[in-house]
Each structure stands twice: as structure tokens, then as C-alpha cells.
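[audit] Reproducing an earlier prediction to check determinism. Same input, same settings, fresh worker. If the C-alpha cells differ from the archived copy the diff job will pick it up downstream; this log only records the rerun itself.
[audit] input (155 residues):
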Amino acid sequence: MTKTSHIIRPMASHRFISVLVLSIFCLSSFATCEQQIREFYVAYMRNLEHNPAQNDSLCNACMTPALILQLRKETRRSGADAIIRAQDVCEYGIRSLSVAPLTDGWYMVRYKWNRDSDYIEIPLKAANCESGLKILHITPTRLGSRYGDDLLPQD
């Protein structure tokens, strides 16, 4: 009996995370862009704690392929995850996470490590929130909190 309960718990945990990720997509048609971005970041950060491999499918669903490649390069260059601008996550960071609209499809993601720390700010551009979140650009760490369409890659 004891062995069975230990086997069920990890499976239940994976089911919970999977349901959380799927709920992002099911609720996306009813949620505002800010809510969808927040749900993406919460799922991404929780996955980093429990099952980082799930972030591949989450990013593939919510980002352009070009952005995914850019973020991988940025992460290798800086040594920190370019999506969260950190090497790690913490529960306080997840609880303190907020998203505010800026202009022209740009949003500011903010979170803290603890009550006394400064906010980590991550500007990003998103589109098509009515049909599901699509993140088009996340400002590289080296550019701080700058945002605007002049930062977008030119095709």
C-alpha cells in the first residue's frame, strides 16, 4: 500500500501541472491579455520548480519560433533564463507576479524575490490575445525596462 501511494503522488503532481497548463489555453478566450500573460508566467515558473521540460510545449504554444531561438541565445549568453531574467524561481516571486499594460501591445511583467527586494521588470509584446496568447518579443535583459516597436527585430 505504501509503495502505491508514493507512485500516485508524483503522477498526481504531473496531472495537476498538466491541468494548469491546459487551463491557460482553455481560459484564454475569456481572459484579458494581462491575465493570459500572468497565467503563462505562473505556469512557466511553476514548471521550472517541478518539471522544466514542460516549458518547451508551453513556449511553443505561446511564442513565435523566432522568439524562442532568440531567448535561447540570450539565456546562453547571460547565464540566466531570459524569460524570467533569473537563474531560479521562488514562491514569493510567483505570488508577487503582476502584469500591467503599457502601449501598443506592450506589457510589463513584474515580480520580486522577497518583500524588501526591488522588482524584476520584464517588458514584452503580445498579440492575438482574443484567439490565444502569442508573445512576440521579450526585451533582452541588457536593455532593462525599455520597450517599444523600435526594439523588434527587423525582418
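[audit] rerun output stored. Observation attached for the diff report: Helices lie at 2-27, 33-50, 54-62, 65-78, 91-96.
[audit] end
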